[in-house]
Structures are given as C-alpha cells and as structure tokens.
Amino acid sequence: MDIQPETPWDGTPDISARIVTAIARIGTVLRAGMWEVSTAEGLNPAQAEILQLLQHRTRGVRLTWLARQLSISAASTSDSVAALVSKGLVRKARADDDGRATALHLTPAGEGVAARLGHALSFADTAAGALPQAQQVQLLTGLFKLIAQLQKTERFPELRACLSCRHFEPNKYPGQPVPHHCGLVDAPLPISFLRIDCAEHEPTDPASQRRNWESFA
Ligand code: SF4
Description:
Elements: H1 15-40, H2 45-54, H3 63-70, H4 74-86, E1 90-95, E2 98-106, H5 108-118, H6 122-129, H7 133-152, E3 168-169, E4 181-182, E5 187-188, H8 206-216
Antiparallel strand pairs: 1-2, 3-4, 4-5
Helix pairs in contact: 2-5, 3-4
The site of iron/sulfur cluster (SF4) has 10 residues, from loops.
C-alpha cells in the first residue's frame, strides 16, 4: 500500500477556506461594533443597516432594492421600514423616475442617526488605515476580485460600484499605470479610487456590468 508520509501541516485548511474564515471573523467583529451603537440608538441590526443604505442617496431607494441589499424578504424589509418611519427616521415619497412608485429617504433625524452609526466602525477603518498604502491597494484589489467571483454565483447584491456604472470606461488607456476612466468627472480612475458605493453611480447595462466584473476577476 502506498502510504503518504504525514507533515505537521496536513490538517491545515485550504487557503480559500482560511480566507472565508478570516472574512467571517472580521464580519462578526464589525457586526458586534455596529450592534453596540445601534442598540444605544434603539435600533435592531436590520434597521441600522437600512439607515446606512439610505445615507447619501438623495434620489431615494425602492423597498425591493433594500431587500436585495439586506438579503432578506420584502415583507421583513417592509416591517423594518415601517418601524423606522414611525420613529421619524425615514420618510416615503414619490419616486423621481416613476410617479406611481415609492422611494424611501432619510429624514433629518435619520441623517443624524446614520452619521452616528457611520462612526461605529471607525475602529476598523483605523486598523485598515494602519496598513501600508501599497498593501491597502492590494487588499482592495483582492476584495474586488473576490466580489467579482461572488457576482457569478448571483448571491451577491448589486453594488453602486464603478464596475457596474455607466460612467466607468475600463481600459481606456491600455498598458498605462492607470488604465480606467470615470466619464462623469472625465478623469483617469486609479484602482485605489474605485468606489464600492458611489452616490453618483448610474447602472450600466447587464452585459457591460458582466464584462467589467469579469475583466477584473
Ligand atoms: S466614480 Fe462613481 S460615477 Fe465614476 S465610474 Fe465610479 S461609480 Fe461611476
């Protein structure tokens, strides 16, 4: 029988498994940090997340979009939104692009709570900021690539990221250190400036989105 010699590292999980574990652990720590502040504000985690998703979205968002971002049902999202409306933190208005549809907006009080929630994760921001700049760019690039892979599983909610934006012009300057371009501000767009959640984002067509994410993956 062909017996393989054992090494001290035989039981080590694959790198991919350890990446997932590390991300999950970071997610747990971030959730706990957010939980502390949202509890002090009298909010449950879903309500806190909704306030953050509505922040800087001056045109408002639809309930179905919120449900997709939260990966929960439209009915549960609707309950959370109703609670936020009754607390005076969210208001409903007619959607700009469809008079029959409803868009959700933060009230001024909701803006204040969302800003305070934003500070809940400043400890993590400080930790990421302590890494050398080149490592931060490397990490951001790796996370974009992982998101690109996850997009293929259709389990990842759509993002207001450069790679799905109609203003994003990939590889406009091939072979250059900064190959991409943002048509909105009409300037080259370095990887270190790629947005994950841009207030000016306008979705491009699904084929271009797929092409952009795939070229990045
Ligand atoms: S910076 Fe904003 S507007 Fe420009 S490409 Fe990225 S998402 Fe679009």
